[in-house]
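Archive entry. Fields below.
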Amino acid sequence: MENYQNTESVNTRRNFLLQISTLGTGLILSGLIPANQALAQLIKEKNEIQSFIPNVWLEVQSDNTVIITIGQSELGQGTRTSLAMAVADEMDADWANVKIVQGNASNAKYGSQSTGGSSSITGKLTIMRQAGATARAMFITAAAQTWNIAESACKADAGYILEIAGSRKLSYGDLSTKAATLPVPTNLTLKTAKDFKYIGSSKPVFDCADIVMGKTEFGIDAKVTGLKYAMAAFPPTIGASVKSYDDTDTLKIPGVLKTFKAAGGVAVVADNTYAAMQGVEALKISWNMGSNTGLNSDVIYKSLTDKIGTLDSLPGNTIKTLEATYQVPFLAHAPMEPMNCTVNIQGTTCEVWVSSQDSQSVQATVASATGISAANVTVHSCLSGGGFGRRSNVDYANYAASIAKQSGYPIKFLYSRKNDIQRDNSNRPASVHALKAGLDTSGKITGWVHRGIYAGGGSVGSPPYSLPSPKNYQDAGNTTVPTGAWRSVSASQCVFAIECFIDEIALAAAKDPLDFRLGISNNSRVTAVLNELKTRSNWTNPLPKGSGRGVSIFSGWGGYCGHVVEVTVNNGILKVDRAICVVDVGFALNLFTIESQMMGGIIDGLSTATRAEITIAAGAVEQTGYGDFQWFRMNEAPKIEVYIIHTGTSPSGVGELGFPTVTPALCNAIYNAIGVRIRRLPISYTELKSTSVKEEINRDLIKVNPNPFGNEINIDLTNVEKLGQLECKIYDISGNLIYMSSFPQNFMANNYSIDSSNFISGTYILRISTANKHYTAKIQKV
Amino acid sequence: MIIKINNKDYDLNIDPNMPLLWVLRDILGLTGTKYGCGVGDCGSCMVLVDSVARKSCILPVSQIVGKSITTIEGLSSDASHIVQKAWIEAGVPQCGYCQPGQIMSAVGLLIAIPKPTDDDINNAMSANICRCGTYSRIRAAIHIAAKG
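PREDICTED_STRUCTURE:
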């Protein structure tokens, strides 16, 4: 069973071919295509359609059908369509005759099929172009030999070889028999840009018609004779395990077949999904709750802020110091298709249908769980209902295989939506980012320090700016919550912190935030993206009161991406009016899917910035579904504009590139609109009110020890309310702001230290702001 | 219990409380209607009940006896329904998982309001979530379909 046309027959033929190739029948290797993937052969079928198969990616049938096989998983990013465009272009195929099929898991045939890190186009473009160019060269040779003319007198066009000086032409189907007898060429000439027909064009996903008819089979739609349905009661806390359970009520439910311990909990196998769901609800389980019942979000964030420590001092020419701490939450991936896997064990072989980002990992996992050798595990990599990094982990395949083995049935194992969110085993790690920067007398950045502390793995990179010896540090706090890759990985947290902080610095330097970025750009492509954003957004045109515009830029995955977001904040209600994306992808393969990825990045960025987060209480994820892990819907989706720069020669990744800058552009827009700085995500934690009048406390309720101070200011906050986002500002005697910092979220300590080595001797005004009050004191440096 | 799906009658002996979604998917093999949340949050399971878009994951099958159900498979067998054609023209799907539900919501909207405004689209389509973020193209496709 497959969800793609012809796959079954193609694979049968391939297997046959591989068998005969080992006998040395017509096997010729191409130097540019890995040896185990190069086969030129012709086979005959009962229906008399013959196939020319120059390599594992390509098959040309005598009826002119061109079948292109893609090894990478399709998750909605358009990889299958886009890579097929590269093959079709290089072989001068007629797109109308192209059929695209998904390759089953096979490292021997396809190399790595791991689909993540925006690597499919960057990693596979060249070999797919070579696969197509191989066929074109062989068809030209076949035609030249047939007509007894020079190869240079022939040219390829839309599925035909034409005689340049004459009127003869032969279709690829006509030539397939002859081509299959030829050696696979070792010297391939790839097209230059002027000859591209499909590369750089714009094509929606090829299976659009099947999708809109509901015909496309996702992993969850697998159909197998005798199939049973399984779900599980998972541990209620991270690290809990089953002590004992009572399934009396479960087994009374019509359709429930059996229960047993599996998937770290208890599995219920039933005739249909509804019975399995009810069966899970009816289980009475006694749990060993494990050692994490005291774990909650506050404990985790405290473990992160505790690791911030003292940030490095800034150079001596610093006259203004800024410090800020940003906080970013855990995120589940929550793709629309919940995790699932279908496993059919038949003796010593096994067939698997799965929506996964790594079909070979599924193959190895199922082999391990069933004891069947990986070579006998056939994995059908089905269209995935989203991935975003979640499907790189294959826990669901492990559970499905174990349950299939224990139950003796072909099994479709499904996570409920609640399971999918609570059992996401690769959440984006929560993180805390402490940043520090200085400005000199001319408003130039003197130093840059960034410490990112993650509740899991994470790294801190430098923004694409000329910064004097930036100091980046990363560390990990409490890592109990399972974490992993989430669209754009560490950039998803870091760029929010960096690009909001850059805005704070620009404003402290009294510069326009976009012009300030242009002034520190370290790269002409960054400058070009910023200039395009400036033009497209009408950046200098003022917006009405209560509305604002924010900008952000990022470089990664070989590309450059920036956003301008426009918002209106009215009585604390945020509305996103417009989102403009400018992306430099270098070399564009498929403009349509690039635009799609940028649109998706905007919706993801806005959704996670405003509301979505995963929180932990009593050792468990609190969220249960889309009701409390909320994504943008149609009524909130802003007007989106995407502008693509593609004047380079090598493609960037695009899946992740469009996410990181959305959130900081949004938060910078909110500041521009109402003067409220967002330092904690999601934004829903921050009251979006511009005119909160605070009580001025001028009595010396805050004390500095000692006063006068030296190279460190130790502030005693015993008498200060610990409400809201605490901020510290220090002004010189003329009223110039020379130091600004935001305290970590939920700061409750009574002491706070500031590095004052850059301060010149003299008198300063110290001001601590809380939710309701400003506390001011006069302090002195010796 | 006799139920009518895509103009075809099925005589089923099943739990009357089973949500229509699972009847369609597990009993009848009509897997075009998708499971996304099971609690009415996401709209992936949308079907037409007598021309009104309803979430089949929270609709007990007993409640549709005597009514006419249209699923994504019932719109056409060749993608020729005007909304399907508009979806193809606008190139809406990314992963495509939510799109059957989006399309059924759009069909319901266009039956009720043949020329919807953007506000009408916001109201009718906000029952559906698309994690790929195809909203701009969905909106464009609905306007294309409304033009005929």
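CURATOR_NOTE: The mean pLDDT of chain B is 98.
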